[in-house]
Amino acid sequence: MELTHFSTQVTRFTPLVWTMLLGNFFVRASYYMVWPFLAVILYTKFSLSATEVGVLLTGSAVFAVLLGFYTGNLADRFGRFKVLYAAVIVGVLAFSALAIAEQLWSFCVAIFFACMPRTLWDAPSKALLSDELERDEDRELALHLLYFLVNVGAALGPLFGLWAGLNGEQFSFIYTAIAYLALFFALLLKQRQANVRHEVSEKTNVPHFRQWLQLLRQDSKFLWALVATFLVYLVFGQGDSSLIQYLTRADVPELALLISSLIVANSLVIVVCQFPLLHVMKSWSIQNRLLVGGAVLAVSQLMMAFADVNSFWAWIVCVVVLSLSEAILFSNINIHIDRMAPAHLKASYFGAAGLCSLGFALAPLVGGLILDIANGTLLFLTMVVASLVAMWLYKVAQRSEMDE
């Protein structure tokens, strides 16, 4: 019965919805196919120090996040497709430039532009999914599928890059450029076939950026949810950076094997458990899903705080619990944003939600400072507090919505 219902929902997905879903998969896979090797090229070819590489990559990532905040509003004002086309064109040019740049300055400029397409693509593609699907349950399934495919793409990209022998060859960036070019033609084809109600609707109701900022300041429930999501991302960001630093400083035996196993465990849990969790929680309110996900996140950090640093399986169990919270939270955060956003401001809201990614950007700095000042136990206990504060803020956002 459930499989039949799922099949019925999927048949309601328009060709444009599938273009957005598969486009996100291929772009993310091709991106990660070569992006992990960027630091190698900056070191071997241009002799940049670790600090210089870190400043360059962090700066370009923060620039892209701030740009997405603005371009989300542009997508609502001028149409989703215009920003999507801009994303793929910038992707083609930027990754082509990375493939052939010979001067350090031109390579650095290309890096900044190469961070833009994902940001430009994110908000309007999610808004298009929402526009194309009339039923809440269909939009929810599409956003779950989007998160699932993005994770699969991020996991398979580096593996394919290694299999294809793209281990630090600068010209391999051309493959990502080709993926963006293919996506450009797919967009061109599907736009003509699509039912683009949002493109012909009145755009006079969409505020300019300054007016949008005024509206945003008045939407207290959304602002509280943004702060909560920022804290959630800050906690998850510790798993990508500070946890590795902590294990490295502790001289854990077989460190390389442990780190690889943690990455594999994380990917497997998300891929295997996301849709079973969706089935279990289908009748729950979105707020309850977020609260349960936050509680599981807090438990994972508490486990890390007191885990035996030399126990291989203790860390595997900790990451499994962390990954369960990720499978619950990440796609439901997108659903929460979609439900809070007015129909004519979907991309603006998704663009504003992109600011929460600054939590990931700041995680290495916050975690590194705590590790230098104190120890791993204090770091993870601090993240327990951050998780609990995020849960409280989601409750505050819910109360603000009920009071309106």
TrEMBL record:
InterPro entries xref list: MFS, MFS_dom, MFS_trans_sf, MFS_Transporters
Its GO CC terms are: plasma membrane
In its UniProt record, a GO molecular function of this protein is: transmembrane transporter activity
Query: What's a Pfam family this protein contains?
Result: MFS_1
PROSITE patterns cross-referenced by the UniProt entry: MFS
Q: Does the keyword Oxidoreductase apply?
A: no
Please give the start and end residues of each transmembrane region: 21-43, 49-69, 81-98, 104-121, 141-166, 172-189, 220-236, 256-278, 290-307, 313-335, 347-371, 377-394
Tell me how this protein sits in the membrane: Multi-pass membrane protein
Answer whether the UniProt record assigns the keyword Nucleus to this protein: no
Question: Keywords for this entry?
Answer: Cell membrane, Membrane, Transmembrane, Transmembrane helix, Transport
Major facilitator superfamily (MFS) profile domain span: 16-401
The residue range of the signal peptide is none
The entry's localization annotation reads: Cell membrane
Q: What is this protein called?
A: Major facilitator superfamily (MFS) profile domain-containing protein
Query: What species does this protein belong to?
Result: Pseudoalteromonas luteoviolacea DSM 6061
